Amino acid sequence: MIGNTLPHIVVITAPERLEQDWIQRLSNEASFGRVDRAGVVQAGLDLVRQTNPALVIVDRDFEQAEACVRQIFTTMPTTICIAIVPKPDVAALRRLVAAGARDVLVRAAFEYNELLESVRSLVAAEQDRRTRAQAGPGEGRSSSRGRLVVVFSPKGGSGTTTIATNLAVALRQMGAGRVVLADFSFQFGDVGVQLNIWSKYTIQDLLPRVDEIDDAMLAPVLQQHSSGIQVLLAPTTPDGAGEVTVDQLNVVLDRLLERNSYVVVDTWSFLDDVAGTLLRRADEVLVVATPEVPALRSVKQFLEFIRQQGLISGRLTLVLNRFPSVNNIWLEDVQQHLRHQVGANIPSEGRLITHSINRGVPIVISHPQSWVGQCMIKLAAHIAGDAIDPISLAPDKNQLKHMSQPEDKGRRNFFRFVRREA
């Protein structure tokens, strides 16, 4: 059963593969309950019926795996099935998915971490589904659980932090409910700098008692910003990144989503287990690109990878940052190169953005009528569900006419940060 108890797993494999290393490693995972194994298909099916496990891994030849998965799915549709097959075959993959498999791995190619991530994400998704179902038909998503928005770029320096901070503030400004901005760039997170917030409390303070998180624990850790959003800061030292596990991350996300309308997450550019978990769970994924060849190449590779892996189940919006900024690069050229529609753009207004970042004041607060400020606000409206076009390739001259420019005084001190003790 999936619930407060640890999930029970059954492995149906061949007699000669009962002692595979991945089965033993799965049995030793603290986040799972009992792991039973069967080397005979019928014995495995009987075991599944008797114990009603949360998840079944079927490691047999294709015909046997398909029949086994279909029987489990038709008799116990809430039981998750993962199939492990001898060789990659698109037709076979489609048949297994049609039979009821939630994921399919190739026996000779998969690594243990890939299986572990699949098991964890599928169990978490099923638990989430059951939680929502228990809320009843009269309770919509907005009243029971918030939306997870993940801002990601496979290329560092693309501006994900600036977009994430302004997006969170803009969502709050337009009345989208309670908003938390979480800095999950664990090694060198800059959310606190961009919002002029400092605290001795970070996500690390939640980890030792992650299963006990409640309002009292969250209160000192979530920092209040003047805009009305709350901020969960990254660890204060780079080595703190190694202390955050995927299981802990999932619990922290669950507690935040239970209490807020939106959780906006800024991430690092490394596609590890943490980033993979965030992308799988996200309701909205913003993939940020900039109009330079290395950045576009990295984004293209990332988009192809997630298509192949089925990594993202939520809505993906490709955000072209600092565009337009380069002569003779057109939106159509970028879309053709990436083989993906650009969903939004953030124009290049370097002076305003630099001034905003150095002051620790988001552009949607300091210069909301600027071209870049308006594009940030339109992106937030898009995320909130408004039917608008978040692409703006030219500034609104009527708004720019009334926009105030940053002061240009000789004694500017851009690197003075106000420290607010929690």
Plain-language structure description:
With 422 residues, the chain is an alpha/beta fold. Helix 12 links the parallel strand 11 and strand 12. The chain has an eight-stranded mixed beta sheet, sandwiched between helices. The chain has a five-stranded parallel beta sheet with strand order 2-1-3-4-5, sandwiched between helices. The protein has 17 helices and 13 strands. 41% of the residues lie in helices and 15% in strands. The C terminus is likely disordered. Helix 3 packs parallel to helix 4 and helix 7 packs across helix 16. It is globular.
Determine the fraction of residues in helical runs and give it as a percent range. 40-55%
Quaternary structure annotation:
single chain
Average pLDDT for all residues? 84
Q: Note the run of SSEs as H and E.
A: EHEHEHEHEHHEHEHHEEHEHEHEHEHHHH
- Rounded to the nearest angstrom, the distance between the terminal CA atoms is 41 Å
Find the count of extended strands (DSSP E, 2+ residues).
13
Question: How is the largest sheet built, in terms of strand order?
Answer: 8-9-7-10-6-11-12-13
Strand content: 5-15%
Specify the number of helices: 17
- Which ranges are low-confidence, i.e. pLDDT below 50, for 5 or more consecutive residues? 137-143, 408-422
Class inferred from helices and paired strands: alpha/beta
Overall radius of gyration: 24 Å
Largest sheet: 8 strands, mixed
Shape: globular
